[in-house]
Design a protein that fits this description.
240 residues; alpha/beta; Rossmann fold; two-stranded antiparallel ribbon; 7 helices; 9 strands; 32% helix
Length: 240
Amino acid sequence: MSLQPDYASITRADPNPFKRYLQRKRFEEAIALLKGRHPALSIDYGAGDGELARQLRQACPDGEVICFEPSAQLRAQAVAHVGALSGVTVVAGIEGIADASADAIFCLEVFEHLPPEEMEAALAQMHRLLKPDGVLIIGVPVETGPVAWVKGWFRGRRRVDFDTDRYRIAQAARGDIRFERLRVDFEGGWGYYPHHLGFDYRDLLARVKAHFVIETRRSSPLALLPPEWNSELNLLLRKR
């Protein structure tokens, strides 16, 4: 989820080759967490421009994918990118999707944008939608520990904003994110954090335990190192 007008230009089509590599790896590792499963129905929760759905259709050609994207801007990009693909449906809401209907739910680069109340609501929705034997695959950025300095340096070369403030970066590098994040009202009236700095994956790990069991934790791109030395953390979860 992003408020950027052109999602592809800041992800898979970004001018920086390392950022393009990380985006490719994000999708590859998320799909790899299926571990040979071939879901009949997958939901991409916060689908952006639908690129994950396109790759899921290639990996699981017999399955269907619902792209849930609440942002009208991004939803229009998803329709343009994957709307014509067989087996892919782009939707603005998930209220009409039946309980326990999804074999797999993917939620990549979403939770870092959600305030606590919205995060809890999203987890409850995913629990409702997932089959008892289904899997939830979550990918989030790591914004604490040494990697905070690396990300701050990279972002500072491209822009000046909340994410590039060196005092906040220093706090995050120490594992301390007790600073107020910039919150905006998103479409539909719910809250949204437009920046990444201030997100703490450890808080998410604590919150998911009310609804799910964490089966797999995998840092990326260097799986043998702890999350704080990586840019991403990927999770495979099952319903309680």
